Amino acid sequence: MSNHFPTAPALAISRWLNCKIPITLDSLRGRVVMLHAFQMLCPGCVSHGLPQASKARKMFAEGELSVIGLHTVFEHHEVMGAAALQAFVHEYRLTLPIGIDQPGAGAVPLTMQAFGLCGTPSVVLIDRNGRIRLNHFGRIDDMALGTVLGRLIAESAEADATASENGTATTVAASCSNEACAPR
Q1: pLDDT score recorded for residue 62
Q2: Which of 31, 38, 52, 173 gives a 20 to 30 Å CA spacing to 68?
């Protein structure tokens, strides 16, 4: 298997909620990023995905993990606008930064297209070097997600320790599937 992981594309966001300045993935280099793609009318997002993203944000230090919501609407466009999303975010007491995906030429928004997302909920994990390490569509078990996050964060700490000792950074090779990442 290849050690190469694709670099995450830029986010195409029309508006941000719960943050003062727009977020870019480049600005988050050096930490692991969890991108949670959702729609407010998606039952799996409401019952599992958003609570899981909120929990991950609380469980890990911001310097280790940044959790970002991506509201990516590919159906029912007329009822899932920014005002409805703001009310939803308020009612569900969501505090994580949430970007509203820019509409595309067709039904599928730009960030959803760029990341090759199959639908919602989806979780994309990006390592500290900006590479996609997991792109998972559907429900992902909390323990499985926690394991992958722990490994990616440990990789970061291990690479930092190696860099401090040797003056250069190295990363641990891993093999990833849609379910998990494991060191080789």
Answers
A1: 85
A2: 173
Does 181 reside within a domain? no
Domain that holds residue 118: 13-144
Asked whether residue 159 is assigned to any structural domain, the reply reads: no
Q: Which amino acid is at 133?
A: R
**pLDDT one-digit tens code per residue, 49-98:** 999 999 999 999 888 999 999 999 888 777 778 999 999 999 999 999 99
- Residue 156's pLDDT is 59
In which element (H, E) is residue 135 found?
A: strand 132-137
Q: How many domains does the chain have?
A: 1
Strand order from edge to edge, sheet including 65-71 = 13-17, 98-101, 65-71, 32-38, 122-126, 132-137
Residue 164 falls within a domain, yes or no?
Answer: no
Q: What angle do CA 24, 28, 29 make, to 5 degrees?
A: 120
Residue 60 is assigned to a structural domain of this protein: yes
Contacts 24+ apart (CB under 8 A), 2-8: 3/173, 5/127, 5/131, 5/132, 5/133, 5/176, 6/131, 6/132, 7/130, 7/131, 7/132, 8/33, 8/115, 8/124, 8/126, 8/130, 8/131, 8/132
Q: Give the ranges where 45-141 is alpha helix by DSSP (H).
A: 50-59, 82-91, 110-115
Q: How far from chain centre, in Å, is Cα 152? A: 13
